Amino acid sequence: MKIFRGFQHPGIAPACALTIGNFDGVHRGHQAMLALLNSEAAHRGVPSCVLTFEPHPRDYFAAALQRPELAPARIGTLRDKLAELAACGVQQTVVLPFNESLARQPAQGFIDEVLVGGLGARYVLVGDDFRFGAQRAGDYALLDKAGRERGFDVARMNSYEVHGLRVSSSAVRDALARGDMEAAAALLGRPYAISGHVVHGRKLGRDLGASRAGAGDGFRTLNLRFSHWKPAASGIFAVRVHGLGDAPLPGVANLGVRPSLDANDVNGGRVLLETHCLQWPAHLGPEGAYGKIVRVELLLKLHDELKYDSFDALTAGIAKDCDDARAFFAGSTHAETHRQTTRDRI
Asked: Which domains does the chain have, with CATH numbers?
């Protein structure tokens, strides 16, 4: 799949079959739409193309209005979205920066400058609630009228349902917020996952529990940064890690914001997915995972983030999480834990 930042690039196809949206999560409704798009593109002999936005338009308006509560929780990173679009067979994706200029662009100008002039759309497929242009003034009727006048086909796809439930990014966010990973997977058509480069963290896990019997190098973690400040999921999870060997590895992970241990903490208050593999691959050695791209599937939420009063308490808590994750992977019934919920953890 070819990826472009903006549409003013010589490598962009002169014509395409196009769909437009944020595609956060690339859920089963999105997948059905992309399958139809690919079919229509093949029929017309042009590449399939997704036009998406970064940041999310609601992120932009939340910042502009200084009302962060208006920003949606983010299901996936841009990397994950692009990977899923490619997996769905999309041939070209254009990531359009959502800024003041785009927010103010009239609907007709968006059609003329972006869809026709920039992307050469021959076919445009949208969802049943699609709106566009300044003040969301553009709708399907306006787009259809423009298509008849400018020579491109316009189609609208109705909502996609699973067991009577409308599949949407909002439904995925709701499932992740309540920690129902099974429901999220049903909506996504796959386990919820986050991928990225393994980066250096505080290296606190090497020391935690190193002196405990059988702890070895302590609780070594793989650190992935989640670029958005408001992830749709948070807490402690039993996970499966791909990318460190031929087979996925079981693990336990924390997704959230850890308070800094000091003013120079390298995490800087950012959202991290910190994953401890229950079976660390010996061939990697102590430093062999840094820079690798891994994908972490979040399979079961164990509990929310907790605040521990000491390193000993934190060590014991992580050890308990590892035991619970092992029980999950062994097929044992996971007992629900009743612990105080907080955003903080030492």
From this structure: 2-164 (3.40.50.620), 191-340 (2.40.30.30)
Helix (H) or strand (E) holding 324: helix 311-329
Q: How far is CA 21 from the centre of its chain?
A: 15
The pLDDT assigned to 227 comes to 86
- The pLDDT score that the predictor gives to residue 202 is 59
Q: Can you say whether the dihedral through the CA atoms of 2, 7, 11, 16 is positive or negative?
A: positive
Class of residue 321 by CB neighbours under 10 A (exposed 0-12, middle 13-18, buried 19+): buried
Strand 2-5 with 92-97, pairing: parallel
Rounded distance, CA 328 to CA 325, Å? 5
Q: Are 304 and 247 in contact (CB under 8 A)?
A: no
Number of alpha carbons in the 13 Å side-chain half-sphere of residue 3: 11
Nearest to 102 by CA among 72, 133, 71: 133
Looking only at the bridges linking them, the beta strands covering 16-20 and 48-54 are parallel
pLDDT tens-digit map of 37-48? 999 999 999 999
Q: DSSP labels for 89-126?
A: T--EEEEEE--HHHHH--HHHHIIIIIIIIT-EEEEEE
Q: Taken in order 183, 185, 186, 188, is the CA torsion positive or negative?
A: positive
CA within 13 Å, CB half, 107:
15
Express each pLDDT in 257-287 by its tens digit: 764 344 455 455 689 999 999 988 888 887 7
Extended strands (E) in the chain: 2-5, 16-20, 48-54, 92-97, 121-127, 153-157, 161-162, 165-166, 193-197, 222-225, 235-242, 249-256, 272-277, 293-303
DSSP state of 326: H
* CA neighbours closer than 13 Å in the CB half-sphere of residue 335: 7
- Match 């089963």 to its residue by tokens: 28
pLDDT at 54: 95
Provide the token pair at 332: 């044992």
Return d(Cα 262, Cα 343) in angstroms, integer.
18
